[in-house]
Write a structure and sequence with these properties.
- The protein is of the alpha+beta class.
- It is built from 5 helices and 9 strands, in the order αββββββββαβααα.
- Strands 1, 2, 3, 4, 5, 6, 7, 8 and 9 form a 9-stranded mixed β-sheet that branches.
Length: about 190
């Protein structure tokens, strides 16, 4: 069977609802030691937000009406290098429907709507997002730039986002868990 035929009949596994954990091989400063929750992945590309990079910008400075709903820390998170002037809101939600995500217990929130209309649940605000064109993410995974892992809503709302990279790697077990203790610069070891 030719390679072209094999490629055409191969089932494509899309990763919406998974975490991408930056491997130590990934040296792009936008993504070093990041954890990205993939909100969409299909034949057109992929989109997600970095969930472990809080900024120092208080959400209250931009969206004061949401302060009471924020998961600590109550700052804007760096969601990724694409369209950093766009705010994306994620919230705890066990509803199904138009504002859900592929991660159980996680929903989207329109930050421009009246929060009184929303069900209870903590909210986190992200500036920008991470995006990949068709086939780009698959290539980066094949190059071992990313490690995939199951996503949980609790990851998005971690009260200690700076520890999330190591925590997600550790819970994978085996050789992957060993990466969690790897220093940023292995030559210093």
């Amino acid at each position: 069977m030719s390679e072209a035929v094999r490629a055409n009949i191969r089932e494509v596994d899309y990763l919406s609802g998974q975490l991408l954990v930056a491997s130590p091989r990934l040296v792009d400063p936008n993504f070093v030691r990041t954890v990205v929750v993939l909100l969409n992945h299909d034949g057109q590309g992929a989109m997600g937000v970095v969930i472990n990079r809080p900024s120092e910008m208080p959400v209250a400075d931009y969206l004061p009406e949401w302060v009471d709903r924020l998961a600590p820390p109550d700052v804007v998170f760096y969601g990724g290098p694409v369209e950093q002037t766009v705010a994306i809101g994620l919230r705890e939600s066990f509803e199904t429907g138009v504002n859900t995500t592929p991660v159980q217990g996680l929903g989207m929130v329109d930050l421009g709507e009246d929060q009184e209309d929303l069900a209870e649940g903590r909210v986190r605000v992200f500036a920008g997002y991470a995006g990949w064109g068709p086939g780009q993410l698959e290539e980066e995974i094949e190059e071992e730039s990313w490690i995939t892992a199951p996503a949980f809503a609790r990851d998005v709302f971690s009260p200690v986002p700076g520890d999330l990279w190591a925590a997600v790697l550790s819970r994978q077990g085996g050789q992957i868990a060993l990466l969690a203790s790897m220093p940023l610069d292995p030559e210093l070891n």
